[in-house]
Structure formats: C-alpha cells, structure tokens
Backbone:
C-alpha cells in the first residue's frame, strides 16, 4: 500500500494560506509608516495580482468575462450589506437642507459623469453606443464598500460632518440610481439607438416605477423589521438578544422581495437602513447591528478584492493606452469637475466641495453591474469594458486610498 506524502501541498490549502497572508499584510504593513486607518484595498488587489503571477500553481478563478455569475453573486451580496450599513450610519436625517448636496450629486453629477464617460468611451476607445452607455453607468456610482474612510462613523457617534454626510448618503443611494442607465445600455444593445421605440417605456418602468417601488419597499421593510426587533413580544424583544443575523435576514428578505416585484433592491436596502435607524434610535442594538454587518462587509470585500487582483493579469491582456487615458480622465477630471458643478450654490466651503467632488471611489458596485449586464446580453466590447473597469478600480483605490487620510485631516483643520 502506497502512502501519500506526509506534507502534501494541496493547492486549495495553499490558496487559503496565501489569502490569510495577503489580508494580514494589507492591514498591517501601512501601520509601519502611518497611524491612520490602513489603505488596505489597493494592497489587497496588488498582492492578489502578485500572488497570481508569482505562484502559478494556485487554483485559478473563473474569468468574469466567461463566467460572470459567481462574481455577480458575491459582489451583489457585498454591495447589499454595504448599502444597508451606509443607511444605518446616519444618525440624523434632519434638517432636510443637509440633503441638498446629496440631491445635487445624484441628480446633476451622476448624469454628467455618465454622459462624459459615454462620450469618451465612444469617441476615444471606439465602443459601440450600447457599450459606451454601459461604461458610463458602470463607472458612475461611488462605492459604499471602499469609501468607508470618507463616510460618517458608526451609529450614535454623532458629529456628522457635511462632507462625510454627503459622501455617505450619495454612496448609499447612487448604486440603485445607476441601474436605469445600465438598463438603458441593455436596451440600446438589443433594440438600437432609436429612442422613439423605447424611451417612454424606459422612463416609466426603469426610472419612475422601479425607483419608487424600491424606496417604498425599503420604508415598509424598515418599519416592519423595527416592529419585529423592538416591539413584539413586549418584554422579550429580539433586539435584546443581540443577534445581528436576524436583522441581516431582514435585509435579504427586503432585497429579494423588492427584486421579485421588479423594484430596485439596492435602493430598498439603503432606505431600509435609514428607516430602521429611526426606530428606537438610541437603542444599543443599532451599534451592534452595524458592527455585525460591517464585519461581513469587510470579509466579503477582502475576498473579492484579492480575487479581482488575481484575474487582473488576464483582464489587462486587452489593455491599451486609451484605457489608461479614460481611467485617468474619469478619476482626475470628470468626477471632480461634475461634482464641483453640481455643488455650486450649496453654500459649502471650497475645501468641502473639493473633497466631495474628488473622493468618488469606484469599486465593487462596478464589478456587479458589469457582471449583471454580461449575464443578460453579450456585448461586442465586453473584453475592453472589463480591462477598463479593472484599471479604474485599481487606480481609484490607489489614488483615493493613499490620500484620503490627508484629505480628512485637512477637513478637521478647517
């Protein structure tokens, strides 16, 4: 009888060990040079890419261009948890004038970004009209997952700076509000650039109906979940058990039921978080729930970023200099300029306007949207889109991740 070697190098177990090393190193190494919260996201991507290139024996992940479903499911769950957490962080919704910068970022800056990126994609990269629209929609929303350093703190901390409030609420809502433009790209890919045939249906169904339904389901879900957690049965409410998994189950229920009736689940879970936070606002369970969901978010994010890094060498095989130009123009020109225009007349100080305009991190949401589109229709420019999205996420996490601490310190000095 032949025995297996005592120390067998199983590639799966090697991969688990490598993931552990990457996460620890990404969180620990920046502490050697700075006391700020570590800029771990770009390091996880870079270390993941390095591991894939230097250790060819590791298990290979499915190419998101050929097998988008697993990437779609993991990124979707990550964004769901992050959006709920963003809603939970907001202690005070009033006065309503606090929302003016958020509304302007959503209604002015985001459409301007979509239009500018689409024109750039069509004119410089040579994407089709559908591909260019999809590129604009995918890159328009800021990311609630990777933007924690510029958002407000956990529940009941108070001191919500206008800049942090705006970036938190924008990140919480614009993932859902970008969806109509993703559908627009799908419609143009299927039916052509003929607005007369589909424009009215797109406006009524994909903008009015689905947004309203998402917001309504989130509010109803938040009130219902608050009732279950805090009110019934009296004297033995679930919130006293401290089990965050009950509320997380409510998040999944709200998201799934909203999607079943064709509403925007991303909007629903963000509104769910905002609504639930108003129920027994001072109860300690809100902080425990936020910390529980944040832990899940961080774990999923770490795995997804390392996975993205591991496939970047494959995705970058189609990278060209025009992709680099588009990525740079988006990050250093289009987003800052559209944000600056949107925030004119809000009364914010110049420094506050600058920080809000610049720090629109791109990340996990873009992965989900591109996977979602790829699983519904085959785009001519799909390889180019993936190369460009991967590059934008990498550059955004590097540029924003390593400068956000300095920017936030400057706000404290103001």
Residues:
């Amino acid at each position: 009888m032949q025995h297996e070697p005592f120390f067998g190098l199983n590639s799966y177990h090697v991969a688990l060990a490598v993931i552990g090393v990457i996460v620890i190193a990404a969180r620990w190494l920046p502490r050697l040079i700075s006391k700020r919260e570590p800029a771990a996201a770009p390091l996880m991507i870079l270390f993941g890419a390095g591991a894939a290139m230097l250790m060819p024996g590791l298990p290979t992940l499915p190419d998101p261009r050929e097998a988008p479903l697993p990437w779609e499911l993991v990124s979707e769950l990550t964004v769901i948890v992050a959006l709920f957490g963003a809603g939970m962080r907001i202690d005070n919704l009033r006065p309503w004038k606090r929302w003016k910068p958020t509304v302007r970022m959503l209604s002015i800056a985001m459409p301007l970004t979509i239009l500018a990126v689409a024109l750039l994609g069509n004119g410089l990269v040579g994407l089709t009209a559908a591909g260019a629209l999809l590129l604009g929609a995918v890159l328009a929303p800021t990311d609630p997952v990777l933007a924690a350093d510029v958002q407000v703190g956990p529940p009941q901390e108070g001191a919500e700076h206008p800049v942090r409030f705006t970036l938190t609420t924008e990140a919480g809502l614009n993932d859902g509000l970008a969806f109509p433009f993703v559908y627009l790209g799908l419609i143009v890919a299927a039916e052509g650039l003929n607005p007369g045939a589909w424009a009215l249906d797109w406006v009524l169904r994909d903008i009015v109906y689905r947004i309203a339904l998402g917001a309504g389901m989130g509010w109803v879900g938040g009130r219902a979940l608050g009732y279950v957690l805090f009110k019934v049965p009296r004297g033995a409410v679930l919130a006293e058990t401290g089990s965050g998994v009950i509320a997380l189950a409510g998040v999944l229920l709200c998201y799934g039921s909203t999607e079943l009736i064709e509403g925007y689940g991303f909007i629903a879970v963000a509104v769910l978080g905002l609504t639930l936070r108003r129920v027994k606002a001072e109860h300690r369970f809100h902080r425990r729930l936020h910390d529980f969901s944040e832990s899940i978010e961080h774990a999923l994010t770490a795995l997804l970023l390392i996975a993205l890094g591991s496939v970047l060498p494959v995705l970058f095989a189609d990278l060209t200099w025009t992709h680099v130009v588009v990525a740079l123009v988006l990050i250093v020109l289009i987003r800052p300029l559209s944000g600056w225009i949107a925030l004119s007349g809000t009364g914010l100080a110049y420094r506050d306007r600058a920080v809000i305009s610049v720090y629109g991190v791109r990340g996990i949401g873009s992965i989900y949207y591109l996977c979602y589109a790829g699983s519904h229709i085959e785009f001519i420019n799909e390889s180019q889109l993936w190369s460009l999205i991967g590059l934008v996420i990498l550059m955004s996490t590097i540029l924003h991740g390593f400068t956000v601490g300095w920017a936030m310190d400057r706000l404290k000095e103001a």
User: Anything to note?
Assistant: The domain at 11-413 is CATH 1.20.1530.20 (Na+/H+ antiporter like fold). The first helix runs from residue 11 to 28. Residues 91 and 156 are 6 Å apart (CA to CA). The radius of gyration is 21 Å.
